[in-house]
Amino acid sequence: METVFLSSDIPADLRARLESAYRVVDVPDDVTSGFEAYGDPVGWLVAGNPVDAAVIAQLPNLRVISNYGVGYDSVDVPAATSAQIIVSNTPGVLDDAVAELTLGLMLALGRGIVTYDRYVRDGSWEREWPPLTHDVHRTTLGVVGMGRIGRRLAELVAPLGVEVLYHNRSRNAEIDESGVATWAEWEDMLQRSDFVSLHTPLTERTRGFFVKEDFELMKPSAYLINMARGAVVNTDDMVEALKNGTIAGAALDVFEEEPLPASHELVQLDNVILQPHNGSATEETRRAMIDLAVENLEAGLQGERPKTPVNWEDIYSA
Ligand code: 8YV
């Protein structure tokens, strides 16, 4: 039997299905060497594991890397493509879940939901009524990296009368046609938005791209939401902007270092809502994601085009 590596827990029925055709081996998600201890895989289901060129070079018979997640920044796709390894991801099935958590965070930031939960619990309410909060309806939301998730978010906030601006490197024709959001120049979007929500993939171009000057363009009353990857923002600049009042607050689902150590400076800040990389983390959505990830793995191993490949055309075109 050929070997398949799994670097995520998967539901028992899917595991049994894989085990009927492959030798299935659990490999911790931080292993980058010493693969001989686990075997010689033809397929690997990864969940944010670092799979760089050096890792790929150690696995000469690998044919498929199925990424359990839409963001595949932890996989070196060009290295996989040169080794003729199919890479797939799980787009589409998590759009609703990520967009709804983003909406929840907008409401929590604007209406002080987390702050005022603490206010009641610590007895502050027994002493005085809390300060007023801010409307979320009829505000302006700026989406950075408008794709499927951003579009779903734009649809969700529409009934609240929220105006949605977006900025991508190039305009998204489908979005422009749909009218759910309006493209804006970078400075204009940052200056006008009450919420700036990041949904861009992490690439060499977006790594560390959101810096001090960008925070300074935002309104002092505005909030940053990061649902993308921690590394797209310069964390030191963000902490500074949050501490000195350049912006009003932030809601963060992703961090440069995950899990975020409880001793991190961000944890000390009252104007930040912290989430443990939770955007897609519902029973229903994770099931849909893992179904798709396993289907992609099986298809690729059978020499078929996975439902949602990343590099199929790069390998098989020409
Ligand atoms: C994780 C995510 O992949 O889809 C993404 O890009 O960030 C998450 O959904 C999830 O933790 C599963 O590995």
UniProtKB/TrEMBL annotation:
GO cellular component: cytosol
Organism: Leucobacter chromiisoli
Keywords on record: NAD, Oxidoreductase
The name this protein goes by in its record: D-glycerate dehydrogenase
Record's keyword annotation contains tRNA-binding: no
CDD domains: GDH
Family classification: Belongs to the D-isomer specific 2-hydroxyacid dehydrogenase family.
Pfam families: 2-Hacid_dh, 2-Hacid_dh_C
